[in-house]
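Try it yourself: sequence plus adenosine monophosphate, in.
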Amino acid sequence: MLKIALPNKGRLAEEARELFDDAGLEIRATSERSLTASLGGEFEALFVRAQDIPEFVADGAADAGVTGWDLVCESGRELDMLLDLEFGRCRLVVAAREELGVTSLDDLTGTPRVATVFPNVTERFFARRGGRVEIVPMSGSAEIAPHLGIADVIVDLTSTGSTLRVNGLHELGTVLESSARLIAAPSLNTEQRAKSRALIELVTALNSVLRARGNRYVMANVPRAALERVKEVLPGLNGPTVVDILNGQDTVAVHAVVAAAAIYRTIADLKALGARGILVTRIERLMP
Ligand code: AMP
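Structure, out:
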């Protein structure tokens, strides 16, 4: 059985569940509050706090886990990062109040007091820069510390930036970029063969969903005479599939996988080449 630690609540929990569902690893919990659940086959989920997952995986209580890269870095534990799951994106930043009168990290002088929920990452970040800081550890809401006069700057997570703005704080620099990651203990690769095979299957399944999410399947009827130019618009994975249409005469159907981000451009280009009946669908899984 491959035990996978998943966040039990918070912003990462729902998206992790959705990703596993889409990969065919549906969480079959007996109740909302279950601590474990079957994911089908040889996979089992353990629901724990996102911040505890690096420890659980490093200590072998779970074979793999899904948690934020910020929390993995803060734990300082040696872990393999197997996959960037692309959700929960945020940045850990240094921020200051306007009143401090600094616009960059280089403007910080002396030994500034830094309030943060990430003391280890913060300590390492400033040590690498060769600066001295006094860490003010917080268990949450670091943004309040400069207003209370207990810190000069903060190191905190931001995604939209609105919490910093509302608290009159502006960014001085980025400490790290984070997103949800699939992690495993390094020893798993060599020690337990069956588990490492299951882990490879897990990575393949999750990866196929992530690739699918970034792409769309495009179908269109195009004039046969325009095929050469259509191939330039629809490179696909190995060039478009070209299909004859019954009684289609001068028209053929083309199918191809296109990057989701490029879909508007592709539709406009296809239209300009005389395409009709353009159909765009989502893809469930993509294994090139
Ligand atoms: P923001 O969208 O920048 O206003 O962020 C709102 C709050 O959510 C901030 O206080 C951050 O600490 C926190 N936050 C934002 N993104 C994440 C994330 N991916 N993981 C954990 N906390 C986050």
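One thing you can check immediately is this: The pocket of adenosine monophosphate is lined by residues 11, 68, 88, 90, 156-163 (CB under 6 Å).
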